[in-house]
């Protein structure tokens, strides 16, 4: 997830007390006590407002009639970037990056340009077919490792073939039809007085001010200047000029509604949500799309995480040991079953702080997989160091490029969930499980343990996951009502079987972490071996009742609890019905990914219970986002 923004207009006179973004490049005084923000200042300010979407490099491209195209970019946070003071700039675009292809270097920072530096492009999303396109562009000079760079070069090709006033617009339209994956793009060109933008799968919103237009991944970028916005739809290409905006869909000029944003500035930083946690829960369709982009080959029944193991290593592999803490540990538990079922390898999960390599194991036949969102958790790093010392091959699944874990393991797969600010992990759990599922398929296929026909339904489930999660999010009101009705209970029990067990554990962790209520998760069959003694009408049971998680047997255990008066809330595969449930929440059919979708209901349940109690949801007491002490 990256942030993109753009502005076309004459600059903005600032009121007394308002400051332009780029302290070094503020333009002329407005003459009445305030200052004046030039195009570069406005784009820079927009990037600061979008930094929550990514912060490992930033850049801008400014276009002025006399100055032409000026590009500035560098690695590091937005404040590391000095935006050039281009006095005649009439339009500009900017980007703040969360790396997916290529490390956060100056070269990989956006904007990217064509061979002669006439065209500049910023991009959010992933161009899945960039390798094929790059091969086609073999006579072009590439200077970065990014997927994005193919876009300006494709535009360059198109412009060489297209002439006339509609040049950049027509070229972007032709190019976007050739891109596979998800993207939001802004393109500018030396000598052109327009910004051309396009979206498919990644958000893009226009802001309308008198004689000026803004564009951004999120209204946060420009909300202090205008509240009149137009949300572009998938497949839209728009041309922004001083005269206004033209939006095209399927080549036809279309009308897109303008609406007024009513959020206050603080809520706007959170995309209109009251808390980052809820925003991040709602980002899951987008973050999951990024996680799987370009990595699934459903037809071939394979997944590609761009990792290669030494020859013979996978064939001889005896054991996968997963090490992780907290939510990442539960993602690991989900994956352990998949490694056994799909990769045909024995898999164990250890709490990282407890991990020792273990006597009697063969280091050269063991893969130790560290799952860590931050890549900085001290307990997990300690486990990786013990595995390395034992001579095992180590592998990280993380969200954070350049994090310590990536420097200490042999291989890394990034989950590409984008920054997560809420202390409670939500979207990163989903992306960890999706990434680990792809790893399990890739290992299974390479070992010959998994037939393409058996891999295909798993990959189809992953492909359909973003849409399924969206359906759950659209049903949030049902969870909110359940939270209001049962949120004041004395304790909560979460149960499931098979892949439902890690989700039950995660559901309980989420609730206790942010609501401070007592919650416990365990395998449903264990209820009768002790915890049933605690069950009363004041202890709701939340159950994962999805296909493949032995739902009927779990329901028997839920009934045992109901017999003792406990209310029961079930996440149930669509089409199934358990008439005695007090609340039934439907889970769309995505095969073995269904418990992961059910988890989104549990995230929302935890959120609403905590919110009703007025808890400090994004920063729960006593907890930190990244725990860097053992
Ligand atoms: O950054 P990591 O994934 O290594 O963090 C591990 C745990 O500290 C983390 O998952 C923690 O349990 C979350 N706050 C749970 O929401």
TrEMBL record:
Domain Glutamine amidotransferase type-2: 2-243
E.C. no: 2.6.1.16
InterPro entries: GATase_2_dom (IPR017932), GFAT (IPR005855), GFAT_N (IPR047084), GlmS/AgaS_SIS (IPR035466), GlmS/FrlB_SIS (IPR035490), Ntn_hydrolases_N (IPR029055), SIS_dom (IPR001347), SIS_dom_sf (IPR046348)
Source taxon at top rank: Archaea
Record bears the keyword Chloroplast: no
The keyword Acyltransferase belongs to this UniProt entry's keyword annotation: no
Residue intervals of the SIS domain: 309-449, 482-620
Alphabetic keyword roster: Aminotransferase, Cytoplasm, Glutamine amidotransferase, Repeat, Transferase
Active site: 2 (nucleophile), 625 (for fru-6p isomerization activity)
GO biological process, one term: fructose 6-phosphate metabolic process
Alphabetized CDD domains for the sequence: GFAT, SIS_GlmS_GlmD_1, SIS_GlmS_GlmD_2
Main location: cytoplasm
Catalysed reactions listed for this entry: D-fructose 6-phosphate + L-glutamine = D-glucosamine 6-phosphate + L-glutamate
GO CC terms of this entry: cytoplasm
Subunit structure: Homodimer.
Database matches in PANTHER family: GLUCOSAMINE--FRUCTOSE-6-PHOSPHATE AMINOTRANSFERASE, ISOMERIZING, GLUTAMINE--FRUCTOSE-6-PHOSPHATE TRANSAMINASE (ISOMERIZING)
Entry-linked NCBIfam families: glmS (TIGR01135), PRK00331.1 (NF001484)
Function of the protein: Catalyzes the first step in hexosamine metabolism, converting fructose-6P into glucosamine-6P using glutamine as a nitrogen source.
UniProt name for this protein: Glutamine--fructose-6-phosphate aminotransferase [isomerizing]
């Amino acid at each position: 997830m990256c942030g993109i923004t753009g502005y076309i207009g004459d600059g903005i006179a600032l009121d007394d007390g308002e400051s332009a973004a780029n302290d070094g490049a503020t333009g002329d005084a407005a003459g009445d006590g305030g200052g004046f923000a030039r195009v570069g200042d406005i784009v820079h300010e927009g990037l600061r407002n979008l930094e929550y979407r990514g912060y490992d490099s930033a850049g801008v491209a400014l276009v002025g009639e006399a100055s032409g195209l000026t590009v500035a970019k560098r690695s590091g946070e937005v404040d590391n970037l000095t935006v050039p003071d281009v006095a005649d700039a009439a339009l500009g675009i900017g980007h703040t990056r969360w790396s997916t292809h290529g490390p956060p270097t100056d070269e990989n920072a956006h904007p990217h340009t064509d061979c002669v530096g006439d065209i500049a492009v910023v991009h959010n999303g992933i161009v899945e077919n960039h390798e094929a396109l790059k091969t086609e562009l073999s006579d072009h000079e590439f200077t970065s490792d990014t997927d994005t760079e193919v876009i300006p070069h494709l535009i360059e090709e198109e412009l060489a073939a297209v002439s006339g006033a509609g040049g950049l617009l027509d070229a972007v339209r032709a190019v976007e039809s050739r891109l596979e994956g998800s993207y939001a793009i802004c393109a500018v060109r030396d000598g052109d007085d327009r910004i051309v933008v396009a979206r498919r799968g990644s958000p893009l919103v226009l802001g309308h001010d008198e004689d000026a237009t803004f564009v951004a991944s999120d209204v946060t970028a420009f909300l202090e200047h205008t509240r009149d916005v137009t949300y572009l739809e998938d497949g839209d290409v728009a041309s922004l000029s001083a005269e206004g905006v033209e939006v095209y869909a399927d080549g036809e000029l279309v009308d897109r509604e303008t609406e007024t944003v009513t959020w206050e500035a603080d809520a706007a930083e959170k995309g209109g949500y009251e808390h980052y946690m809820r925003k991040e829960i709602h980002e899951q369709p987008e973050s999951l799309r990024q996680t799987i982009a370009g990595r699934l080959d459903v037809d071939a029944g394979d997944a590609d995480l761009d990792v290669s193991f030494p020859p013979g290593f996978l064939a001889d592999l005896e054991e996968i040991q997963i090490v992780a803490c907290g939510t990442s540990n539960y993602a690991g538990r989900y994956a352990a079953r998949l490694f056994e079922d799909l990769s045909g390898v024995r898999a164990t999960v250890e709490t990282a702080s407890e991990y020792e390599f273990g006597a009697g194991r063969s280091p050269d036949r063991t893969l130790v997989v560290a799952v860590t969102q931050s890549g900085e958790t001290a307990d997990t790093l300690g486990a990786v160091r013990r595995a390395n010392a034992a001579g095992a091959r180590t592998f990280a699944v993380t969200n954070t490029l350049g994090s310590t874990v990536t420097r200490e393991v042999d291989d890394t797969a990034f989950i590409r969930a984008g920054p997560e600010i809420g202390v409670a992990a939500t979207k990163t759990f989903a992306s960890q499980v999706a990434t680990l599922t792809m790893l399990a398929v890739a290992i299974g296929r390479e070992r010959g343990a998994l037939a393409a026909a058996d891999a295909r339904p798993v990959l189809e489930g992953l492909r359909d996951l973003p849409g399924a999660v969206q359906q759950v999010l659209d049903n949030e009101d049902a969870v909110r009502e359940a939270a209001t009705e049962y949120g004041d209970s004395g304790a909560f029990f979460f149960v499931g079987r098979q892949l439902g067990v890690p989700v039950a554990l995660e559901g309980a962790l989420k609730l206790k972490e942010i609501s401070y209520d007592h919650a416990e998760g365990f395998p449903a069959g264990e209820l009768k071996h002790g915890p049933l003694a605690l069950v009363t009408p004041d202890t709701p049971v939340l159950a994962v009742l999805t296909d493949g998680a032995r739902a009927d047997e779990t329901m028997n255990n839920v009934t045992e609890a109901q017999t003792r008066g406990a209310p029961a809330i079930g996440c149930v595969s669509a089409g199934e019905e358990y008439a005695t449930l007090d609340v039934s929440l439907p889970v769309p059919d995505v095969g073995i990914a269904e418990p992961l979708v059910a988890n989104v209901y549990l995230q929302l349940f935890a959120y609403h219970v905590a919110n009703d109690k007025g808890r400090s949801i994004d920063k729960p007491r006593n907890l930190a986002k990244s725990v860097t002490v053992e």
